[in-house]
Amino acid sequence: MKRSRRTQDRLESLYTLDSYMDKAATNAENIKRMKRLLKVAMQFSLTDRQREVVRLHYLEDKKVVEVAEELGISRQAVYKLLRISRKKLQKLKNIF
Question: What is the average pLDDT across 1-29?
């Protein structure tokens, strides 16, 4: 059976959407997994202040300005704490 071009385009769109949804579900699962791993890694390798900044910025999706205001520190201090935390977590990642 020959399909019209319009029907063919619709079917391709549905296949693309289905594939996208599968990838989105997988990505959502990966994001949840990574957040759980981050929480565990933070407990063992970061100071309390670093842990708080990472939690607010990455896990609660707050902007640097919001983190700075909430903790009563400068934006530069937040950036520095995030940089140091990323370095520590990167080293930990390389071990595993």
Answer: 58
